[in-house]
Amino acid sequence: MIYSRRAVLAAGLAMAAPTALAAGSSGRHLSFAVFRNNLKVGEHVMVFGDDPSAPVVTTDVSMLVRLGPVPVYRYTHHAIERWAGGRFASLDTTTNSNGKREKVTARRSPEGLSIETLKGPVIAPPTAAPFTHWNADVFGKPLFNPQEGKVLKVSASRRGTSPVLLANGRKIDAQLWSIRGETEIDDWYDAAGVWAGLKGKLQDGSIIEYRRL
After folding, report:
1. pTM of the entire structure?
2. DSSP three-state, residue 136
3. What's the gap between Cα 149 and its chain centre?
4. CA angle 139, 143, 145 (to 5 degrees)
5. Which helix (H) or strand (E) holds 140?
6. pLDDT tens digit sequence for 54-64
7. What is the rounded CA–CA span in Å between residue 154 and residue 196?
8. Which of 71, 100, 129, 205 is the most exposed place for a label (fewest CB within 10 A)?
């Protein structure tokens, strides 16, 4: 995910171990309340298919930012992400970012990875995967933005265990990964390896935060 005013929620994560895929699909649903500067602005919901070793992950994001009572920014994002044999296989996304529409299609084949956007094809490393956050095992591999199809210039570092705030106000200890480069994001994963939370800085200086429901 590139955290900009235009791409605040699109955002994750090739070649993951089956155990991580199983953890990511625990409960088949994964939902977050989304906050900007501590004000709730939307939700991020992921639904996982029945097969944890080859999940189909459907993501829906909806966000509305207001200035007082006046809506100033609306965002929706829909994605279908497929995995097979522990590897990223394909992605289809559509996004409406305050009226700007974007579409990304990514397919893995024996020849490599192809990414198509409304602006044309994107050249990506064959092992790249979408930056969708739920699968931490792919940190360190090439990642691309699922909203724009752009290959990201980032690195990920494991920072140890630290507390993360859930939507109910409770804190849990979770593994922290810090992603730095052209974006600044922290992701947390609980003891089962399930995505537990996110915190990042937007280009306008505001803070975006995901609190798991």
Report:
1. 0.86
2. helix
3. 13
4. 130
5. none
6. 889 999 999 99
7. 21
8. 205
